[in-house]
Write a structure and sequence with these properties.
heterodimer, A: 90 residues, alpha+beta, five-stranded mixed beta sheet, 2 helices, 31% strand, B: 605 residues, Aldehyde Ferredoxin Oxidoreductase,  A, domain 1, Aldehyde Ferredoxin Oxidoreductase Protein, subunit A, domain 2, Aldehyde Ferredoxin Oxidoreductase Protein, subunit A, domain 3, six-stranded mixed beta sheet, 41% helix, 13% strand
Chain lengths: 90, 605
Amino acid sequence: MTIITNVFGTEFALKRPITLDLESPTLREVLAALQRHHEGPWRRILKEDLSLREGCVVLVNGRNIASLEKYETQIHDGDEITFTVLVAGG
Amino acid sequence: MKGICGKLLEIDLTSGKTKTLPVKKELYEKYLGGRGLGIRLLYDMLPPKTDPLSPENLLFFLTGPLTGTYVTGSSKFVVVTKSPLTQGWCDSYSSGRISVEVKKAGYDGLVIRGRSNHPCYLRIDNKGVEIRDARLLWGKDSFETERMLKEMEKDSTVGVSSIGPAGEKLVKFACINSDLYRQAGRGGVGAVMGSKNLKAIVVKGDKSVETFDRKAIVDLNRQNYQLALKSPVAQARMKYGTPLTLNVTHVGGILPTMNFRFGTWEKALEKIDSIGVYKSLKRHKACLSCFIHCSLVTEVSEGKYKGISLEGPEYETLGIFGSNQLIDCLPVIMQANILCDKLGIDTISAGNIIAFVMECFEKELISSKQTEGLEIRFGDADASLAAVERMAMRQGFGDLLAEGVKAVANYVGNDSERFAMHVKGLEFPAYEPRGAFGSGLSYAVSPRGACHRRAWPPAKEILGGYPPYTIEGKAAMIKELYDENCVLHSLLVCDMPAKFVPMSLDVYSQYLHAASGESVSKEDFLKIAERIETLIRMFNNREGFTRKDDTLPYRTLNEPLPDGPAKGQFIGEENLNKMIDEYYALRGWDASGIPTEETLKRHQL
């Protein structure tokens, strides 16, 4: 499956596709795979236990995982996963 | 109590007389300063139903107890008045050197009444105030005005606030400019200043602001700076500034697009988002006394607008002039920003009005016969820029645009008010409420109209755990956000260090103690905020506002969002009413939005 990733922080990546060798994974499984096998700023966003570093947030298709199933949120082919720092105002 | 001067400077432009207005310590204890002090004074001093553009309206420039004390983010002031756009309460915030200079000159703020019989400007220092002739400045844009005044003073460090031609012409959303690129933008405060024939204010103070424990302030700043260096949030803000918000609002489906018809716009990406703006970055800049240098000074390096440079554009301008008008050319948005700043109009109101007119053209509700041949359509950069000039100068059709989107919709008729995106006459900021229902409540109940400063609900609904398309818990969420920001805006500190370091109200309690010697806990702060918000409600009630005015446009309530994560969502009248009912109850107001006797007693009002 392929997910589309965005990273919004001091490092920035827009719509980067990543192919994962996973079938019907949860977000937890996706994050583990990203951390283990794929280049990217994952260490700055995720701790060893996959919890988010302070000030970082994960959105799946624009929805915060905190208002979905959190790490058990099901991820599907083509889903857009955004890792962003908190922002405010403007 | 240190950190305050205990007095305002009152200037009567009709009589030419000035005097000192003492402010009792008790008022600072009950209202802090800034917004809080502003509402107390406006409520007490302004007769009900005063015409906002009459000499009788009052124009306050207020500081807070932390202004001039080197607390990070404290170089801010608020302009408080009755708004000519909404006919209600108006608090309009700005950074600016003038905030510190007013304090150094020995005042916590200024109150201006009356009307000069010719254009004038105020020149204030520790010796006193002069009302000087401004006929040579009248008609000049804000940038030129500031440049000329600083040259006359032979001092580039004076604090200057001025209006552009739009304020002189009483454009209902005219702003007040400071330090070139800082505006007290919303609500038409520039028109109030223009109605008094007041072109500018120049302040130079020479006294330090006395504090209780300066070392403690410096130590707190150092500690918080170290936190900022380690904070990915603060670091990202310092690198990208507010344009980073556009990437988040697009992904979250709340980026206003095509006059708030849609919530996402792929074409914005890498063009008018954080990446697009960063490509034009010349340097970063901080406000006076702030270590979060979140301002970006940008410059266009090629093409038609080569060489133009400004501090900005900020997220609001990118959203409202960019995606909301389907303009994906950053140099055009930068040019629009510069024009708005120079001519002195609020980019949020201006951009909204233009987007509304674009939709009217699309729906054939207006033709170029009514606009002197100017066709204003979505995506047309030249037309958008031409519209900015016309509305700022009240030329031709621009004279109607200068009245605000509510007035334009009244003229157009044909149910166009359904997509005139305003609350109480104040045009929407750049967050689509159908994608975050709490934003809808926040806009609806905001006393100054649709406002993004009172609360920032996307922090909870897009970036936090609140489900965005439900109403449960949203009233309490908005009240909490309102009260926290009320404290910050009454202390008159910028929200950004608070949100990005982050710095909690407990930290500001420490700052306030260090500055003033006063002990105010977080709980005390929040009680004061409740008092302030209820008094503001009383002001608006007295001016004739009712629950009917706490509402949202038809589009937000009834039209499903066609795209993005919030596809299919709309708020609905019933949902809005439920949220409002809850919000009023939490505030201690009855079902009509009138504070109860018990609430008045609790707040000592």
